[in-house]
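Posting this for the archive.
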Amino acid sequence: MQSSFAGKRKDAPSSMLNEMERIASRMRTIIVSMPPEDLLGYIYYQSVRLAGVKNEGSAEDEDSDGSIGEIDDFQFLLEYVHAVLASDDAPDAVNFDEEKVSELFELSRKLRQEAMFYAMASSANTTHHEFGPDTADLEFHAKSSWVVLRGNRYQVLESEFYRFVLAPHDDILREVYGVGAAEIAAGIQDITNANRTGQADAVAKIGEQFEAAKKYALEKGKALEEVMGDWAAENSDEIEAARSAVEDLLHGGIANVSRHTDLPNKLLEDLAYERGEDKEFFADGEFSGTPYRTLPARKKPLVKLGTDYFAVDLCLFRDAGYRALLFNMLERRPDYKEPFKERQKIMSEGAFPEILSSQLPGATVFREVYYKDPVTRQWVENDTLILLDDVLYLVEAKAGAAATIASPALDFKRHAQSIKDLVLKAYKQCERFSNYLNSADQVPLYNRVNDDYQEIGRIRRSDYRVMIPIGLTVESFCPFSTYCKDLPAINPLLQKHGFISMSIDDLFVIKRILPTAGAFAHYMEVRQAVAAMKHAHLFDELDHLGAYISRNRFDMDIAQQLAESSNAKLVIWDRMGDVIDRYFEGENWEANPIPKQEFPEELLKLLKALDETRSPGWLFVDSLVRNYGEHGRRDIAKWLSEAGKTLDEKTERYFALDNDGELLFIWMQSSKIATNWQKINDQATASALYAKLPAAGLFIEVGNRGSYVKAEYFGINPPDKKTADNEHIYAEAERIAQRMKEANAPHSPDKPNLPAGRKIGRNDPCPCGSGNKYKKCHGR
């Protein structure tokens, strides 16, 4: 019985493959028999109709997996329309048949479903070992993503992405195509805009013409039918606009890039198939016509219909357009290949600090850093080292293809090698630098100048509280970028620093959502903590970002989930990026409120002061403040506000709070008095001695009307033992203990160090300075 089951499981992929080939062949027959423009118009109309139904439903319906699945079905079908148009000559006679289109929709759904079943069955039976015991799991993700993952970027940011990645080749693009990076980027944005809002614009345009004609009839005092001929003769431009709108609405015109962009024909020609040009996708052999062959749109995302060029499948246009453009540029200018590689390298290595310049104010940036590997004693190089306060970002950029052409079903070894080149090589380079940094108290850094190595600086590992190694790719290749952390070869560097894989696409989103250095650094700390957790999966960077916006320290939530279930082998958080998605929706998306964590106004004022002061250690205390949850943030804001109101009378106030065993001591004083650092340090040290917790200090100088003139971090280092020099600090710690004992007594006459009239709430920080909540300290 067991043997029979094993045999069936082994045979299952073969029968699934046969079924996929049968379905694909039937789809090809139907598609080639249809007028392509009418077929596209029908598919686009049905997709818009689905969106309209979804928008009329409840919020729960809007987020349902069913709606997303239907959208994916439309996308999958469009890929096959493109594939057939690229593979088959136009027949002499075509006829639109709605019944056959209905059959086509059903066949497409079945083929997509069968392809997913094949991914499961064939991966379970894999004979590959490229990734050790995780190979089967990763092979499944590779095959399933190959089939269903498309266009995983925000359409509204296409221009920004293309303008940046094409800028290094602007002069060559102008020579070859007559337009540069900016013009091409604008043209591609026009294509995506036509697809995104084209049908809605067409409906609006037709409605405008109808209303104008009605008004004309009213002015003439005649029926609409009587005056339409006259109105049309007098408004030929409007009639042409209405005709174009009808084309967009019903005949696939929104995909006509010749009409919707100013891109030159020469460029469009390089990105497009002629009818019947592709001879590989439906060629005889294994996987013929199935999703596991390389779809023609992965190589050329456009197709020529008549004299115009169409972006039938916009998502693969976005995924493949960049590489197709560069490939054809080099085909026309083969002499440019070596300069191309160098410029591409400079672009990718400089992307992180350039795109995130607002998030890295005043950072020291080293590029092409050389050093002697302490193991091999050979000179080696790392791409980009960024030092900002006590945070170190180490970025290894990879400009290679993200496994976009080699099908994992046809050539898993090649597909796997692409992943290794993108992830493991970057990881190994980061690991090598981390080991070098850890090899001595202080290590030198060098630049290479004409085969000579010149020292450019020295750094100490001990100066950096946070060290974040990053592998950066030009294009996203999720989910591998997040799943690869489970590979046996990838572990936290120096057993502490998780490795993060990101793309340039991700950076353009992050810079909008996290506009300050403090917000970005804190996100990267949390992101790194999740990256160091095996078997904790979020799909892509946008899911991580959405989880951070919604849950803040979501790493702690995941750690708790893993800890609470001893049998849990995998924790998956899904759809966390929805909060980010919604921001980029709509025609006027830039007017949407930016997704953000909520902070009371007083805390926003504090974070702004830290960002403006930027004294050493500011990112550390900024991180401590951001670590607090909703209630903790309200508590701090309340204490800051109430203490600040009394500074005209008492000129200086202090309090301390505990968050997960770390004490934050805050000293506030009026800008009207001189700063007495001896007094501040003594009081902070006494509080830390009493609380018996690791502690950090925050000094806030308050100006007119409660403004924060500056906010800066200061260290607190409690002594190990009492001496003649520090006995006054121990005495103060004892006084704190006594005051708290008296404050806890039923009839204590003493009042804590709070603004007058302030009653201590049970959830307030205890005024003893311990940092614990009052109910868990002296309120018991």
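The two ends are 66 Å apart (CA to CA). Residues 601-776 form one domain.
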